[in-house]
Amino acid sequence: MRELINEGELEPRARVNESELTERFGISRTPLREAIKILATEGLLELLPNRGARVASISPDELEEMIEVIAGLEATACDLACRTITDEELAEIEAKHQAMMAAWQARDETSYFRLNREIHEAIMLASRNTKLRSLYLGLTGRIQRSRYSAHQTEAQWAQAVEEHERMIPLLRARQGEELAGLMRRHIRSKKPVIAAIYGEEGTEASPR
Q1: Is the model's pLDDT at 206 over the cut of 80?
Q2: Which residues form the HTH gntR-type domain (predicted)?
Q3: According to the model, what pLDDT value does residue 197 have?
Q4: Could you report the per-residue pLDDT of 71-87, keeping only the tens digit for each?
Q5: What's the mean pLDDT in 121-134?
Q6: Which residues neighbour 19 within 8 Å (Cβ) at sequence distance 6 or greater?
Q7: Is there a single domain that holds both residue 98 and residue 22?
Q8: How far apart are CA 125 and CA 11, in angstroms?
Q9: What was the pLDDT predicted at 196?
Q10: Is residue 145 one of the residues assigned to a domain?
Q11: Per-residue pLDDT at 17
Q12: Which residues form the domain of 35?
């Protein structure tokens, strides 16, 4: 269910159809309802009195707060990763970056956004801080699809790519402070894109 939400199959404010999901997963209602309770504590679902559950929406104020926290977590991960990353991890990130650049040039959005997400997650893993990663995963899941699957203009997309191009040399040089600052700005620049998807009423618009 978490994956369905993160991938956008279950959109913000969509009602959870228990009958459909029990059939899809081949389970009874009891484990499904336990899963719903867990996802509600994570903020992914909202429990409705006597009416089941629905996918949580995000208000503009909440979105602003979430992005600021995510930006801080990723910036901290960059600083830590520059102290602990191995040559093998760095090589893997660089390979993903090159593949992402090829996807961008080919306008292969699906591959581009998948690789983009994997790069951010690889840097988080390289920080060697499990508490930081746990906080990050708990927050970013709610906006993961909109963060990695949409952009409003070619200029915004090109800016994001240019920022990623600058990240790799900083990571290779282990310049943690500079990389952290760049990452913070990079995440903050996503605010207009994500806000446009959720809209002022917290409902999801169609991605470009």
Answers
A1: no
A2: 1-58
A3: 67
A4: 999 999 999 999 999 99
A5: 96
A6: none
A7: no
A8: 28
A9: 73
A10: yes
A11: 95
A12: 2-55
Number of domains within the chain:
2
Give tens-digit pLDDT for 8-64: 678 778 899 999 999 999 999 999 999 999 999 887 899 998 889 998 878 888 888
Instruction: Give the max Cα distance, the chain.
Output: 56
d(CA 1, CA 44): 10
CB count in 10 Å sphere of residue 199? 14
- Give residue 204's pLDDT: 37
Cα separation, 93 vs 80, in Å, equals 16
Q: Which residues of 34-66 are buried (b: 16+ CB within 10 A; e: fewer)?
A: ebbeebeeeebbbeeeeeebbbbbbeeeebeeb
Separation of alpha carbons 43 and 15, rounded Å = 15
* Residue 71 within any structural domain of the chain: yes
Is residue 207 in a domain?
Answer: no
- What is the 3-state composition of the chain as percent helix, strand, coil, each rounded to the nearest 5? 70, 5, 25
- Structure-token match 């104020």, residue found: 61
Nearest to 66 by CA among 188, 198, 196, 192: 188
User: Do 44 and 127 sit in the same domain of this protein?
Assistant: no
pLDDT in the model for residue 180: 98
The reply to whether 116 falls in a domain is yes
Note whether 71 and 188 are within 8 A (CB).
Answer: yes
